[in-house]
């Protein structure tokens, strides 16, 4: 019995060792093909890097996250899978939001108080546009409203809306006479019947080539007599020469003797060369060109002649 007992003990010890090895093997298998711990990863959404907190995932499970929660203006989902303790991304579909047919945006013509709400007639993808006639907003007005879709938001640029230009000298405009890497920002534009801009401010309908409608920097801010507000042209890739302009339309032929212009002092958004044009009754005619100091071409030529003499 004693020997038998010892034999059984030896046998059982062997079984225990064998079972322990099996358990160790099973434990190792769980580690290789197991769950995925919670972690933080970086994902790209629309060119931006965003940190994302991913929760603990069991083997074979998945987790999704809404793209709009990571970056405003994006739609779709991000999906992550856990397989063999490895976390992988799949089914990523983050894309810029578009604008739906029937969507509208607030617009104002010039410095008027009346509010309009033009709408798009078809779906627009991000960075796409549609045009609406100004006459559909205000009878008799010329030009068009530029409706732009950006990340699901619609803006209405009505800067080009203006009454019909009449006879000669019934309108003026100033243009950037050089390339601007940013946009053109003008704080104040005014025309006067007095030669030194001291009196006789002329009233006209303000209009322009474009305006930064999404940011609210409309043409009205260039004539509001507030030097802390400004109009900004819409130039997503910089303003080519003579493409960013702003002007005044008068009810009849008007003698403009002086023009006052206050623009940004930031190099990207100011023009060191400015052209003044006047309406001839049929098209625009150049009246004067200025450099950044305010000298006209004629004044520079006279100065050069005096220095030469």
Could you name the key traits of this structure?
disordered C terminus, 5-stranded antiparallel β-sheet, alpha+beta, disordered N terminus, elongated, 309 residues, 18 strands
Could you explain the architecture of this structure?
- The protein is an alpha+beta fold and 309 residues long.
- It has two helices and 18 strands.
- The strands form six sheets. A five-stranded antiparallel β-sheet has the order 13-15-11-17-18, with no helix packed on it. The chain has a three-stranded antiparallel β-sheet with strand order 3-5-6, with no helix packed on it.
- It is elongated, with a radius of gyration of 35 Å.
What is the count of β-strands? 18
Low-confidence segments, given as residue ranges, are: 1-32, 303-309
> Beta fraction of the residues?
25-35%
Structural class estimated from helices and strands: alpha+beta
| Mean pLDDT level | 87
Distance between the termini: 136 Å
Cα Rg: 35 Å
